Amino acid sequence: MNVVLRLPDGSISWPVQRVIKRFQNGPEDSIVGYAIGLGLRLSAQRPAPPHRRRSWLRRG
Fold this sequence. Notes:
Helix content: 25-40%
Strand order of the largest sheet: 1-2
Shape: elongated
Number of strands: 2
Strand content: 5-15%
């Protein structure tokens, strides 16, 4: 899959290829390092888990 991401400064990135390399090669192909290299600001906080909806079926 060759999805190309063209950034405002004219640079080109292939994020899907990076994810595939991460699965193939492990931690040395860090996605976080790649994102930081692209200039993204990342937070140290994890996002809150999504709110779970209550089921209309209740267990007995």
